Amino acid sequence: MIKxxxxxxxxxxxxxxxxxxLMARDPQGRHLxxxxxxxxxxxxxxxxxxxxxxxxxxxxxxxxxxxxxxxxQVRHIALQLIKAVDFLHQNRLTHTDLKPENILFEDNxxxxxxxxxxxxxxxxxxxxDFGSATFDHEHHSTVVSTRHYRAPEVILELGWSxxxxxxxxxxxxxxxxxxxxxxxxxxxxxxxxxxERTLGPLPFxxxxxxxxxxxxxxxxxxxxxxxxxxxxxxxxxxxxxxxRPLFDLIDELLEYDPDVRTSLSRVIDxxxxx
Length: 274
Fold this sequence. Notes:
This protein is of the alpha+beta class and 274 residues long. 37% of the residues lie in helices and 12% in strands. It contains 10 helices and 10 strands. It has helices at residues 6-25, 57-63, 71-90, 152-155, 163-178, 188-199, 204-207, 226-230, 244-253, 264-267; strands at residues 36-42, 45-50, 93-94, 103-105, 110-112, 118-120, 125-127, 134-135, 213-214, 217-218. Strands 1-2 form a two-stranded antiparallel sheet. A two-stranded antiparallel ribbon has the order 3-8. β5 (110-112) and β6 form a beta hairpin. α5 runs antiparallel to α9. The termini are far apart.
């Protein structure tokens, strides 16, 4: 239910428009976007009815003491998420707010092992929250995405399109496996410093006009050593050889330059999914 406040009502109408278009293109929900069953206006409050679903992958991770998902479940969730978002991209739509909170399990049935580790019996998911989804022809606001999943081109205000979703998926897959957020920050400069610590220097073509860089170098002093202590190169997070294909995929999704960042239709053939 969305309160009877003008700006919220208008936002709800935009989301309803997106959901209706998705339903028209995929009436059976085969592409795993949440299905809106109905909507109505009740005394000015906008009410949307959806299929009943389980917890988000974030809530389940939190309830599991932030112990990452098993590799086979990360693989299944990743494949479903990539196919769902690729469906959006094929329809000239960018989600713009991909994060673990917006990925819901179909149900809430799980088992608990001797170490009190919970495991969902089914890792089937649905993608939700299309309130910020933007069609190619619509106005693109300067800043999109929840901070931790925000692509470098958004932070640098270089404009954005579908590749910003691809970046977000890379951050999500890391978090699902490791149980921690890849870029845990709320500051632009610190965020960029974390990216460079994890992935190497940003390309000069992206930074040359940025207020955060001078002479190709990031203007940031890590006085508290927070970045150095809380980030390391991406390949240093690989603890088991079985995880290497996943981290190869994450590395591909986290390409700095959106012009050369992989497309989701291409990444489905990645060796991680074989």
